[in-house]
Design goal:
single chain; about 850 residues; alpha+beta; elongated
């Protein structure tokens, strides 16, 4: 009997075992196979399977090559199982093919459409079923729901077997409810209240209006962005050492939502003690850049003003030929005095040039629309300040969901590649607006607009409005880069119809167009030049046209004779007590419109051709809901460049916002204007300033200023005539309601207004054609034009509602003119949906 030693027995056992069972041990013992046999395959060709086992130069397979082939077959995802056996010199590969997917279906999904889910999953009909891929698809579907705020989602894949090794793949989805933010709290905020900080961040807590928005849906990326918003808010208000240590988000299963807590270390508030300029560039005197600094001694440390100063100084240095100059700010803190000394250090930066600018992700917007926002191009010196400005401009376009500009190494050490990564978003709007105001009544508007028309960065809008007293059509178009220069060319074409209402006896129809040019002189200073050409025509209801002094008017019960008009209704000339028939009340004795209205109706349509401009200075922190900053508009329009109307109209409007204590914002509003006659053409009533609640709240529309009192002794006053001069001043305090969630958007206001409108210079007499005895009945005008100061105090309710901005005001006049029209309550608003 032959005896086998232990090592020999082990070797025989290893040869008898399948390679798939002990791959590691098999790899350690070389094996040889001269032929490969494939079993179990139905769809995959045998030669395809054999191709995964590549023999060496000798034509044989060792254990390592067999192991590599086995792993490669498994990784294809085509097979549910792969086994390898050896029988003598043959290698047998036994496979079990994965079934083929007949269909992929989704059940239970109501919030996400099938098309969106189909695009996300990798398992496709007529593809091979892979269980790891199915699990990965289930996770992708869950992630889609989480991105929309549904963290309770459950996705269960089900494989339904069908004949001929086919299966149906069904994902059963339990969507759950939206996972909102139930509360937002702050720890360490000693200076600013939680209500004030909630106004800074984008995330909102769930409230009864949350169904109209999605800012209450928990989004970890948004919460992380809120950390930076809080930090920037503190840095802007003097807290140079602030740290937002953490933003903790904890899911509460009882409330089925997240509790978000921001941990803040405020530090001390600093003021600027000094501002110095230093330069290591021999030919550049840093003090010459002082005029570009927005940092002032004694002011609160403001990181935004600091960054803007650095940007402006660095750009100015580049313009002077120092393309590689770098401005670096340094702040030396005095911890005891709570001050910081600012030093702007100008150094020579690395000599790096832009090799190319690569743009990615712009599927719709043309490349040149993006490139023109850069003040540099290929071959220019790399200037980080200019790159940052371009990134800010691209974000302000509002064409993209995301804008990120990075710098990558170029082909050499002195070359850099600027990469612009973009994500497009929808820029078209179909808006249906509705509103109501105490002046215009109910009003509806339908508009279609596109901010990025044809992907060329053009703006276009068409709108139609229809209401009780106001109707119109308008078309607008803006080319923001005229002839590749940073000059905006705009064109407005409009048709407006204002109907007679309780404030005016007449209607006005206006049709015209206005081209304009806009220049951004600085980031906070802009200039607009415009030309306006429009045709204006007055219309009157029939019951305002039946002058009793018309002999042909036989239908009226009261049709006085010329003698009665002269002696009884005519009145007395205040400069001549023996005169009669002066004011001609007979023309208006039963309620006709005022003389200027009738005269301008008789004169026919007026054509106005005017040149004008607006100079705007804007430092507001937020144009929609400002809490800090200054806005000044200075406007002038000169009519008389053609047409049959001439005047010079000037107006100034200034608003100053300042945050006070406990989230209260103070507002000072000053305004004034003047209308001057040009040449020998009389001013029309329609060209006068018409004022009301826009000047002093508590008064009706057109309720202030000169007014027709020709037949006041008969118990009524006529139309408002307007004025050529006005001034107004207002002080207002706005504050949130602390007992309501910030997200509700309700604020209260208290205010005091004062102002005046005077100086009517329109028609005062008219020898009306068609009237009897026009020589003695001149249809004169008697009007009140008092310069009395109108004033009022009031309260307001401001609601940034989901239905649009709404404002309710109740104001009580303290002083007024004798014939002014009071309207103590006023409200208005509207929305787009």
């Amino acid at each position: 009997m032959m005896r086998l030693r232990l090592p020999g027995v082990l070797a025989l056992m290893l040869l008898a075992m399948p390679v798939s069972s002990l791959p590691r041990m098999a790899a350690a013992a070389p094996a040889v196979a001269s032929a490969i046999t494939v079993e179990g395959n139905r769809r995959v060709e045998s030669d395809t399977i054999r191709s995964y086992f590549k023999p060496g130069p000798t034509g044989t397979l060792d254990a390592g090559q067999v192991d590599d082939g086995l792993k490669a077959l498994v990784q294809t995802g085509l097979f549910a199982d792969v086994k390898i056996d050896r029988q003598g010199g043959r290698l047998i590969v036994r496979v079990v093919e994965n079934p083929v997917i007949g269909r992929v279906a989704f059940e239970g999904n109501k919030k996400v459409k099938d098309e969106q889910l189909t695009a996300e999953v990798q398992s496709k009909p007529r593809g091979t079923l892979s269980r790891p891929m199915v699990q990965s698809d289930a996770q992708r579907i869950a992630e889609i729901y989480r991105r929309s705020g549904r963290y309770d989602v459950r996705v269960t894949p089900e494989i339904i077997e069908q004949p001929n090794n086919r299966v149906d793949l069904v994902f059963t989805i339990e969507e759950g409810v939206k996972t909102g933010v139930k509360s937002i709290s702050f720890v360490g905020n000693n200076t600013y209240s939680a209500a004030r900080l909630r106004d800074v961040i984008k995330t909102h807590a769930t409230n009864w209006l949350s169904f109209l928005g999605n800012n209450d849906v928990y989004d970890p990326d948004r919460v992380e962005a809120d950390r930076d918003l809080i930090r920037r808010f503190y840095l802007k208000n003097g807290y140079a050492d602030v740290q937002v240590v953490a933003a903790l988000s904890e899911y509460d299963p009882d409330q089925k939502g997240f509790l978000v807590t921001f941990q803040i270390e405020e530090g001390q508030q600093y003021r600027v003690s000094s501002v110095q300029f230093q330069s290591s560039v021999a030919a550049l005197d840093a003090n010459t850049l002082r005029g570009y600094s927005r940092v002032n001694v004694g002011a609160l440390y403001n990181v935004e003003q600091l960054e803007k100063s650095v940007e402006e100084m660095q750009i100015e240095a580049s313009r002077r030929g120092f393309a590689f100059a770098v401005v670096r700010p340094r702040g030396d803190r005095n911890l005891e005095a709570h001050t910081v000394a600012i030093v702007f250090q100008v150094d020579e930066g690395p000599r790096t040039y832009i090799e190319r600018i690569t743009i990615r992700g712009n599927t719709r917007t043309r490349d040149y629309v993006i490139r023109r926002e850069f003040d540099l191009s290929e071959g220019d010196a790399y200037n980080r300040a200019l790159v940052d400005r371009a990134e800010r401009r691209l974000k302000n376009l509002d064409f993209f969901k995301e804008v990120k500009i990075t710098a990558e190494p170029g082909s050499s050490s002195d070359r850099v590649i600027i990469v612009v990564n973009l994500e497009e978003k929808s820029t078209g709007d179909l808006s249906v607006s509705g509103g109501y105001s105490t002046t215009d009544g109910a009003l509806g508007e339908v508009s279609v607009s596109e901010r990025n028309f044809l992907g060329r960065g053009l703006y276009a809008k068409a709108s139609v409005s229809y209401g009780q007293y106001s109707r119109g059509v308008s078309l607008s178009f803006v080319e923001p880069y005229l002839l590749d220069n940073r000059i905006a060319l705009g064109l407005d074409v409009y048709y407006k119809q204002q109907l007679a209402n309780s404030y005016t006896s007449y209607g006005v129809t206006t049709i015209g167009f206005s081209p304009r040019l806009g220049f951004q002189l600085r980031e906070d200073l802009s200039l607009q030049l415009r030309y306006s050409l429009y045709r204006q025509e007055i219309s009157l209801p029939s019951y305002y046209k039946n002058c009793n002094n018309n002999a042909a008017n036989s239908l009226l019960a009261f049709n006085p004779t010329p003698a009665y008009i002269k002696s009884v209704l005519g009145g007395v000339d205040p400069t001549n007590s023996t005169s009669s028939g002066y004011y001609g009340w007979g023309c208006y004795g039963d309620g006709e419109s005022s003389l200027p209205v009738r005269k301008e109706l008789s004169d026919g349509a007026a054509l106005t051709s005017a040149l004008g401009y607006t100079l705007s200075y804007n430092t507001l922190d937020n144009n929609k809901n400002p809490t800090d900053g200054l806005l000044i508009d200075w406007k002038q329009d000169f009519a008389g460049v053609g047409g049959n109307v001439s005047y010079l109209k000037s107006a100034v409007d200034a608003k100053y916002y300042s945050p006070l204590v406990a989230d209260i914002v103070g507002i000072i509003h000053l305004q004034g204007g003047m209308l001057n006659k040009i040449g020998d053409k009389d001013l029309r009533m329609l060209d006068h300033f018409q004022m009301g609640p826009s000047l002093v709240r508590g008064f009706a529309s057109n309720g202030i200023g000169a007014r027709d009192i020709t037949y006041a002794s008969l118990g009524a006053t006529g139309d408002a005539l307007g004025g050529t001069k006005y001034w107004g001043a207002s002080a207002e305090l706005q504050m949130p309601f602390w007992f309501l969630p910030k997200e509700v958007g309700l604020k209260g206001a208290v205010y005091a207004d004062a102002g005046s409108l005077w100086g009517y210079q329109g028609p005062t007499s008219w020898a009306a054609t068609g009237e009897v005895n026009t020589a003695t009945c001149k249809c004169g005008l008697l009007y009140d034009d008092s310069k009395v100061v109108r004033s009022s105090v009031g309260v307001g309710l401001i609601w940034a509602s989901p239905f649009g901005p709404l404002r309710f005001d109740y104001a009580v006049p303290l002083s007024k003119g004798k014939y002014d029209t009071v309207q103590e309550f006023r409200f208005g608003g509207g929305t787009s949906f």
